[in-house]
Amino acid sequence: MSVRFERTGAGPVPDHARQHRVRMRDGTRLATDVYLPARADAPLPAVLVRLPYDKNSRYVFFDRAARLFTDRGYALVVQDVRGKYRSGGRTLPFLREPEDGYDTLDWITHQPWSDGAVGMFGDSYYGFTQWAAVAAQHPALRAIVPRVTTVDFNATLRDPDEERTGVGRPVWLEGIEYYAHHWIDNGAYDFTPDRSLRPVIEQYERAFRAIGARSAWFDLLAPRFTDVLHALGRHPFDARPVPVLHCVGWYDNIGLPHMRDYLELASRPGWDAVQYLWAGAVDHENYHLDLAPVTDATDHATSEAALERMLPGYAGPALEFFDVFLKGVRPVASLPKVSWELGHAGRRTAPAWPPPGSAERTWWLAAPEDASGPLPGGLLADAPGPRDGGAQWAYDPDDLVPSLVPDSFSYLSVHPDVSGLAARGDVLSFATPPLPEPLDLAGPVGVDLHVSTTAPVFDVFVKVLDVDPEGGARLIVRGEAAVRDGHTPRTVHVACGHTGYRLRAGHRLALLLASSDYPMFLPSSGSDDNPWTTLAPKPSTQTVHTGPAHPSRLTVTVCPAPPA
Prior knowledge:
By secondary structure, this protein is α/β, with parallel strands linked by helices. It is 18% helix and 30% strand. 49% of the residues are buried.
């Protein structure tokens, strides 16, 4: 059966932008829009955005966001990266971004409207292009604002310690599929894989055959992973330090590596003094917890009014940052080192992250005999149970645990009730008693499990939930691990990232364990077979061990209540 697809090309250049074709050092020309204030009496600092999603698309909305920058006295420069939409060159991500970033910065500084100072801004891949430009060390680059991104996109797919520890990451199928949609040629391809098809790689082979072209980067990642990002040269963290405002989403699906970037630089001499954190209860596509799930009236992807309401909060933190480090019209002391949102309880500031006074709190998995069934299931207890015990859950490759959202990049647009998953026979659940008072989480969350299995390899998927008094359950954070050699009990640490979140009085904190999450993640082969190419993945049974000898536990970071 042929795969149906739709190709999207470049949108029209808006009337209030002037497009240039900027020459790179190898002669390739990149399509670049410049937005200027209606009146500019003197040269201006510029904000550069380099992206692969069509600079003129409704999706990136820079034709609408431009006025926020120009009204503030900045030139906004938005560029299609090499090989995408109106820009020339081969369609390959990452590899030429340092050189192309440097050459674009150099072009800006030679324009008559430029005062020689440039900042960079943007999300996801156009956060990465900022780090690539930092590595290139053009002297005009004065500050960057990377949003929901990471310096190393390999970190979204692989755990660097996997070979040493035997614990890695399950294959993020959704993250690799991205390249099959966006990195075939200079357009984008929308298609829906047949999720029932085995081997899983054939889901994409059928799409490539229908399209008549392939994604070269997808082929580097599947069915066998090839690391080529190490060839980029100087690591950005080894370059000249620049001020950075890290904009992190608590619900971002690559939030964990982004926080790792921030924490590393915040502790690195030379960089530490100019690291700033803005963290919000948003996902990768800037949907907000307070509006979740969205309606037709609140969906900024389709509603012009909703987009207009969203844009000031999207660009505002960056503009305040650039006023300090590009224009110099506000003092450095006016910027909080950390501005963070406590979900359901508003925004706060702190001198560091986690906020001073925060402390770890641990709950131990107990009453495992009740863990197979609907919430609340087993108990999250204040101490390990008095006796050793355990609970089992199955992995059935013919009946996978569903992901519940069609797209985790926009998780909060749906923000589903996940309580139904706990009733499945292949999911375990544990929960606290109802909380007598609010509990504020502010910092990292992790789970340490003593697990064993009947298979040579298996996956563990963890969801940490807020369960309301009516039994509805919503995600707070999540994490996953791929484990080898687990026939005897071993300790597996599952990092669930960071959060700022208030559990309200009467709610429960809960934990779900499973061994699949499809189609967000590639199902385990259950054997030494490649999970992309296997025709017959193997079922397995996992056991989580509890009690004094095997104290499996959930650890969160709790923020003290502010003074009355």
